[in-house]
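Loading example: each entry is read as three labelled lines plus one structure line.
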Amino acid sequence: MRGLLPLVRWVAAVAVAAVVLMPVVWAVSISFKPPAEWAAHPPRLVPEEPTLANYQVLFQVGNPVGVVAEMTRTAEPVTRAFITSLIVAPLATAASVAIGFFAAYAVSRYQVGGPMLPFLALTTRMFPPVAFAVPLLVYYRMLGLIDTRLGLALMYTGFTVAFPLWMIKGFIDSVPRHVEEAAILDGASRWRVLFTITLPLVKGGVAAALLFVFILNWTEFLFALIFTSRHAITLPVQVSYYAGAVGRFYGPQAALGIVASLPVVIAGYVIQRHLVRGFTFGLVK
Amino acid sequence: MATIALRRLVKRFGSTVAVDDVSLDIPHGKLVCLLGPSGCGKTTTLRMIAGLEQPTSGEILFDGAPVSNVPPQRRGIGMVFQNYALFTHMTTYDNLAFGLRIRGEPRETVDGEVRRMAEVLELTAVLDHPAARLDLSTMQRVALGRTLITRPRVLLLDEPLNNIRPGLREMLRAELRRLQLDLNQTAVYVTHDQEEALSLADQVIIMARGKVEQIGSPDGVYRRPRNRFVAAFVGSPTMNFLPCEVTSRDGEPHLAGPGFVIPAGRRPDLGPRGRLIVLGIRPEGVRLGEGPVSAVVMLIQPAGADQIIELAVGDHRLRALIRPSLRLTIGQQVALDFPSDELHLFDAATGEALDG
Amino acid sequence: MAEIALRDVAKRYGRIEAVRGLSFDVRSGELVCLLGPPGMGKTTTLRLIAGLERPDRGEILIDGQSVAGQEPGQRDIAMVFEDLALYPHMEGFDNIAHPLRLRRMPIEEIRRKVDHVADLLGIPHLLERLPHTFSGGEQQRVAIARAIVREPKILLLDQPLSNLDAKVREVMIGELRHLQQRTRQTTIYATHDYEEAMALGDRILVLREGTADQIGTPEEVYARPATTLAATITGSPPMNLIPCRFSGGLAMADGFTISAPGAEGEGFLGIRPEEVRLGEGIPAVVDLVQPLGRKKIVEVTVGRVRLKVTAGPEFAGQRGDTTAVAFGPSIVRIYGADGRLSATRATGPPFQRGGTMG
């Protein structure tokens, strides 16, 4: 009995992983296949004639090589959208988590805004986002922020800030006040306490918030679609162009999907070691 | 009648041995304390008696019959936990009645039993109060009453006074003991507090690292500890220990310690000259005034009815408990005596007591 | 070295008056213990002195200067919290060095000072470990090391030993007393444990509901507790307080009478358990015997009065046995109905109505 159990667990884990990872694996496979193999029957996991053309076409202007030429009529090179996303998402994430952290500290330690504030902050997420679209369009038009990267970053910051506020507040609540007071009596300023004592103790929560908000920002579609037209198009919008195009372009679509996912995977990899139980080690009680 | 016997009980969790070959007998109507530092196996032993853990090997007998196949709820035990586990949304009455009601006892029986138990525990006045609003001492009595009303053969208590502030704790301890004596209730009480164990128990079982170190009456374990561990664990302030060597003077056995030689008294087991032993003496056994040991006063701590003084004997420190009226100053030279009937002698290597 | 003075200090949290009109002085180099049950304002008093709270009224003076305008960091006060508040993400060395680093002390000097206090407290082996690997006693020592390393003017200790088990506490009390005698650091130590207070305090301040019930040496507080609270919070077991009616030079309890000249009205007679003798005097019934090794605590009933008595280990009585008790001729304490000590009187032996006994 006892010998069998780990084996059963192992098999179950592999089965779950296979189900979850299959689409990803398939997308990777297609992204390296020439058009003839995209919908070949029977399907093959390993491409017979592997090619990088699907990736090249994403970043090229003008007539790309060979069989995928038809696609260029409908899609811009992805470079610009990629750069926009690489600027907007990290910028908005950093701003959102920074503001969220300070807000969480203020709410947790000084009850700023009263007991309802954290809840009120969440209400921005309780309406369908479309409800905000029209008024925001008016403002953005007046401010000249339509179709700008700054405009998008500001909007993302505002819409996501409730998440880091909630996530980090929980962590700060569990840091005993005495630890901070001890540092104050040691002679540290409030700011210094915040950065040398509190922040290291809640870094698990901050890391989790960073990753969570980054994924939200990176994959946001609706506002990017409404508020951009040419200059500040983001990657998800670009992906949608491909999906809506005439004909089937599985190869470039798969390649774009992979390219679009990579930053999230990298961010997740960098942050994950901070995620696991950040801080409560060593506190008495 | 309810007697419990443990026979060569062993409990392993993975590779760690929590309880290591424990055998003991708990007579009817007695309160037995399992005493030891955390991790000594006392709670695991209690949980095995309750049936909440299965022994790895060995046997538990209730009234001579093995209970290994009897589930906890059919062993006839009552258990009181550290946090009382009262149903705080119910009144005292409903808390007391709970155990009888789930057994489907008729309403009149339940009512009669609840009122009788409330009488014994002086809870009659608070029968209608919600348990959440009772004070700690009353809560403890309700918790006890709720357990006792089902007439358990054995009452098991797992550090029930741990979270209660000093002062109140001593009061509750006394109340618990009075009740147990009056009901003649067989009980097993787990604690890490030696004072609690001594003051409550008919019999103290001292455990360390899963093994029984000594079984005896409170007086017995205090006066005749079987080894250094028990000697140091029982008693407050802690027993003093000094390294000594067996020697003889004028044909009589003596002990040579750091800077002193004292008579060893009549001890047939002292062993050859030159044997290394550890001399133990309780703080209240140290006599100040005259004697062969010279010491310097290092520290004076008033303690109300007594004062505790710390003394330097050579490189060693020891503590003496003396009358509060005695005036001493720090740095003062004093003479000490260790009367031979106050000495506890232990083998230096094994820590076992020499039988005096 | 510094003197502290509180003048009519008060602090309320919402509807709760934590400290009300508290005044006392701490002399330079003295250790004063704030003794009181939980919720009596001990912690609040320390936090007010540290500057972590602002008083609603009254003044706090350090070396004669009001500190009202000073931030906590400017007062040069170190505090050890009940939960110790070590920085969990810093090793022992960094925990202790933290206050020195903030003062931009050169690293060699920091090293020297940290090593010095680590030796003093016997914790050099903890310097390179994280707090979660420390035992209770070790956390304790590191917290104290961090507090004293910068030689603060004032050291505040808030029930620092309350989470330790009895044996470790016993050792730590001795060590703290040694440390205090060596450093002569002006210290205020809050505790609800009278043993700690008596062992450590040069003087004890008994706090009740945010005001001082009594301030005096351990011996004074033990011998003449100024209130019934001071009487019952000191001693183990605590003082017997026997409800009495005083009249005509007699104290009449529900079971015996004793001479008590000069007192009138309702009140309590205060007698310490070790002042009662067993086996002589007026008849009593043994209610409970609790052995503690070197002594036994015996509860007896005399008439309807229940008394706690400290007996020697040789006492052989059991629950239900009859015995006798006597106290005096000695000093007894007389408390008025308001709980304040009204007199201490030399008294004769107790007797029962209808005849003198014992």
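The mean pLDDT of chain B is 90.
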